């Protein structure tokens, strides 16, 4: 289905590249899925009123009833550009507006219709209407299709930063073991992968309608960019979340000095953007010593201020955070190690985020339970037996099986080692520490190689001396 739609979109001169194709597809999907949810709300809530004007509801303009009256061509294009978008962008909402209604305006504030051919738009809509989202089975089956859409972001230029491979989000959430009733947050949620992994993990604990409501109320995300925000909201609606707790905002825009306990989370799961540079107006929201230009640094500082006492964190960070020793990084790492127990760093190989980036990353796990005494490192092994992951050999959840076995019964090995906090502090908070067992093995290997080279040299020297003796002997005989 998705491939058929993408093939049609490629024929449209207004759509340029994967990112625009995905953006075009998802606002259409949002309206169709939202319409299916409205059918459910109308059935169970007698007083339900849609925020969308009647003629703009999916059922009233997008469904082809085969009577020759379906909008298509220029008429459909004019309807979308001049009526649908202009109206949805200006929907009247205020603080009293129901959250599930207000989300329509929030989604369309930054959405855009890229397609310029109304006939091709009609073909796309007709394919989408082959899926009945009012049927729970079809909606759940479509979740796998939607995951394909999200994975396509990895090769969609800079948009790849918004997608974290599902095995990574699932593993992190599993290791944090969130409980029903705990507030779970991702302050740079991208397409909502960590939120979905958290919801799937919590579903096993849901026994009553009240439990489900409690779960929905406590999974929370913030996303700055419009495309991933739209993808995240649609993703959560597909997973039966009526009022997605995702806000379109920049988490770094609030001063960390303003956070109260109700602003903090029990569990924080994140893959913050890295490599970006923040402006001065953002940096002043942090203490002077932590005012870094690097986005990942500021998000790490934000986490420390938004984590509740006894709270837990799983975060993806590049190697640069571990070995960086500039003033801001040192200040952030000092605060991390003095206020939290950084108990585990899982070192990932290159290629996990291929083809978007080849930067090697790490999974940091810590708890706000007091200062760190020692840090365990675990070097993740590529399940394919290769050195790195690739675009065709991607990370799988089963590849984390060794970590799971090791997690509760920790022992040092060729893949696991621990480092005392004093070693990190004395190293100017450089946490890029290799496995000493491997370094020692390399030293032994180097010694063996040197010995072999020396032995080989001696043998060659002996052979040369013997040859010289023969030449001298032959010369004497000739005399």
Overview of the structural elements:
The structure is a single chain. This protein is α/β, with parallel strands linked by helices and 479 residues long. The protein folds into three domains: 2-134, Ferritin (Up-down Bundle), CATH 1.20.1260; 151-426, 3-Layer(aba) Sandwich (Rossmann fold); 436-479. Helix content is 48%, strand content 11%. It has 18 helices and nine strands. It has helices at 2-9, 18-44, 58-61, 73-89, 99-108, 118-128, 136-152, 166-176, 193-203, 209-217, 226-238, 280-283, 295-306, 319-323, 327-339, 401-407, 421-426, 436-478; strands at residues 184-186, 219-223, 246-248, 265-270, 307-318, 341-347, 361-367, 374-379, 416-420. The protein has a nine-stranded mixed sheet, with helices on both faces. α2 (18-44) crosses α11 (226-238) and α8 packs across α9. It is globular, with a radius of gyration of 29 Å. The mean pLDDT is 89.
């Amino acid at each position: 289905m998705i491939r058929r739609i993408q093939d049609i979109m490629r024929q449209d001169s207004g759509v340029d590249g994967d990112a625009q194709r995905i953006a075009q597809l998802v606002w259409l999907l949002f309206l169709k899925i939202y319409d299916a949810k409205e059918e459910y709300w109308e059935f169970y809530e007698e007083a339900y009123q849609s925020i969308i004007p009647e003629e703009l509801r999916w059922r009233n303009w997008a469904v082809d009833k085969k009577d020759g009256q379906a909008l298509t061509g220029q008429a459909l294009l004019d309807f979308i550009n001049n009526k649908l978008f202009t109206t949805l962008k200006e929907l009247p909402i205020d603080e009293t507006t129901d959250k599930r209604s207000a989300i329509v305006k929030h989604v369309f504030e930054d959405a855009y219709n890229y397609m310029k051919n109304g006939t091709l738009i009609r073909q796309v809509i007709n394919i989408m209407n082959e899926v009945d989202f009012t049927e729970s089975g079809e909606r759940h089956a479509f979740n796998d299709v939607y995951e394909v859409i999200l994975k396509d972001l990895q090769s969609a230029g800079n948009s790849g930063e918004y997608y974290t491979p599902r095995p990574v989000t699932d593993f992190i959430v599993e290791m944090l073991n969130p409980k029903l009733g705990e507030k779970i947050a991702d302050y740079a949620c991208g397409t909502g992968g960590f939120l979905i992994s958290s919801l799937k993990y919590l579903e096993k604990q849901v026994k009553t309608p009240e439990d489900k409501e409690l779960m929905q109320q406590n999974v929370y995300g913030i996303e700055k960019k419009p495309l991933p925000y739209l993808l995240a909201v649609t993703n959560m609606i597909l997973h039966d979340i009526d009022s997605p707790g995702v806000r379109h905002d920049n988490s770094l825009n609030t001063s960390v000095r303003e956070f109260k306990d109700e602003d903090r989370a029990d569990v924080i799961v994140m893959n913050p953007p890295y490599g970006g540079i923040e402006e001065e107006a953002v940096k002043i929201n942090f203490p002077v010593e932590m005012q870094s230009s690097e986005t990942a640094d500021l998000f790490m500082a934000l986490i420390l201020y938004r984590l509740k006492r006894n709270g837990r964190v799983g975060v993806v960070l590049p190697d640069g955070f571990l070995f960086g020793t500039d003033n801001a990084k040192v200040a952030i790492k000092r605060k991390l190690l003095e206020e939290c127990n950084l108990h585990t760093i899982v070192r990932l190989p290159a290629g996990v985020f291929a083809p978007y980036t080849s930067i090697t990353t790490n999974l940091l796990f810590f708890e706000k339970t007091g200062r760190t005494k020692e840090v365990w490192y675990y070097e993740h092994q590529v399940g394919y037996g290769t050195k790195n992951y690739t675009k065709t050999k991607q990370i799988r959840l089963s590849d984390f099986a060794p970590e799971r076995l090791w997690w509760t019964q920790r022992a040092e090995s060729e893949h696991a080692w621990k480092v005392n906090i004093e070693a990190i502090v004395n190293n100017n908070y450089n946490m890029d520490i290799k496995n000493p067992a491997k370094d020692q093995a390399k030293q032994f290997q180097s010694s063996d190689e040197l010995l072999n080279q020396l032995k080989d040299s001696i043998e060659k020297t002996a052979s040369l001396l013997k040859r010289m003796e023969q030449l001298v002997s032959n010369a004497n005989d000739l005399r």
